[in-house]
Amino acid sequence: MNRVAAPAALPHPPAAGGWREGDPPGRRSWVVLDGPLGLESGATLPDVRLAYETWGRLAPDGANAVLVLHALTGDSHAAGPAGPGHPSAGWWDALIGPGLAVDTDHWFVVAPNVLGGCQGSTGPSSRRPDGAPWGAAFPYLTVRDQVAAEARLADALGIDRWAAVLGGSMGGMRALEWAVSRPGRTGSLLMLAAPAASSAGQIAWGSMQITAIRNDPGWQGGDYHDAPPGSGPHRGLGLARRIAHVTYRGEAELTSRFGGRAQPGELPSRGGRYQVESYLDHHAAKLVRRFDAGSYVALTEAMNGHDVGRGRGGVARALRRADMPALIAGIDTDRLYPPAQQAEPAALLPGSDRLRIIESPHGHDGFLIETDQVGALVRELLPRPAGPGPLSSPNRS
Questions:
Q1: Are 233 and 216 in contact (CB under 8 A)?
Q2: pLDDT at 245 exceeding the cut of 70
Q3: Does residue 70 have an active-site annotation?
């Protein structure tokens, strides 16, 4: 059955979704960076705080640390069940844990919430030093700024070098930036469903989503975070999510699941919906309750500006700096970041042998769904380290 029920009547969504002060912390820990963070734009961001989660135990020499980086609307909860502070189960729950592809009996896994996000890290919905929400005053960020913050997090955790940096989509952009900007701190790289530089088409998709949010009267110029429930830019954020979700899924999958069928009991000719519209409504309604529109704009702008070759003599020259074992994978049905965009770094990175292809009917979201195929790539990149035995207890830590 492919029916998606109409959303049940719910209280008005919050003006700003996401984790807020006073919410249950869940598994999160926090680091406040030592000193302000200088940004590529020339601006400075004070009092930067990054939320993160860990699994496993750091080896005495720190050599078993693995960095896992989330996509646009993801967060630090890469593994573990839903619960207080975590509305959803971990987005790579099938990959991270004892005996799994990223085996936490041997590896120490760190997953931060990205700078600019809304799940505990400093972003537009968090408070400035004067106590007011950042809102419209939050500075423009780049992927390089986000990686610079993550490098400061690694410093605070006592990690000089990651055994591997793993990420898909926006997380793949940051993983590649780690490899290019900090090759000495990146032991190996797995980049999934991401480009070396965003294309005009991808910038266009992102710009439409940003425009949808900014054209919502509830946006209030970006200063809506203390508004009452129901008055924030949730309509614009919901529209942005609908646009994005179409790019995340494969055409054949949507046709197979929904075709041109109407939602049961609804006639499109009389204001009802098609089944695919109901499906998009469902995903929009979920997102507006767990994500902040300001973070969506800030992170989409960072993705639009992603280009590892900027200021480095172009993509090809920049990629030659990343001399470490690398696996680059695309998804055969991805229409947002098609495999041709992964072919370039797969061919140019010194430590990459060839482009790997994940076969999936699910389009771009295959990097989250096809965990058996992704797990095989992870195991290839991360063989078990030599040592006397597990570093962690049998339970996830």
A1: yes
A2: yes
A3: no
